[in-house]
Amino acid sequence: MRWWDIAPxxxxxxxxxxxxAWSTGMYWSELAETHPGGTRHYTVATxxxxxxxxxxxxxxxxxxxxxxxxAVDERHxxxxxxxxxxxxxxxEAARRGCAELLLEVRVDxxxxxxxxxxxxxxxxxxxxxxxxxxxxxxxxxRLDHPSTDPKDLKDTxxx
Length: 159
Description:
Blueprint: H1 6-16, H2 24-31, E1 40-46, E2 52-61, E3 64-72, H3 81-95, E4 100-106, H4 110-118, E5 122-131, E6 136-144
Parallel strand pairs: 3-4
Antiparallel strand pairs: 1-2, 2-3, 4-6, 5-6
Protein name: Ribosomal-protein-alanine N-acetyltransferase
Family: Belongs to the acetyltransferase family. RimI subfamily.
Keywords: Acyltransferase, Cytoplasm, Transferase
């Protein structure tokens, strides 16, 4: 993801997460940390005409990784883009030497939870009222020892 991707990412963000969307400023701050030696890694998924239909971000600090965001346009869900984005984040976490990778997912989003489970993420806790203003709880999930090796990734159905 580059600075010129922020506007189309924001269009998706506002459509997919109308109640708790990130701000443009938050994306600018995140991208400011993607330089070599930075703590962030962001990527986008595009269709052949270049339209952004998904995006994902990782924070990696001192051997700990955290999935900051992952989203796929609802018109392109089910095509393996979420799996591809998650694979990219897992490989980057491993490349950066993360011993574990954490994420939060809405408790009312079983589809996303199943995706994470296919990759080996395990539930480790609940964050009450994490998603505001809707006051929806987050399920915290963890993947121990992320790998760069494709055969170690549990979900290989979509490359």
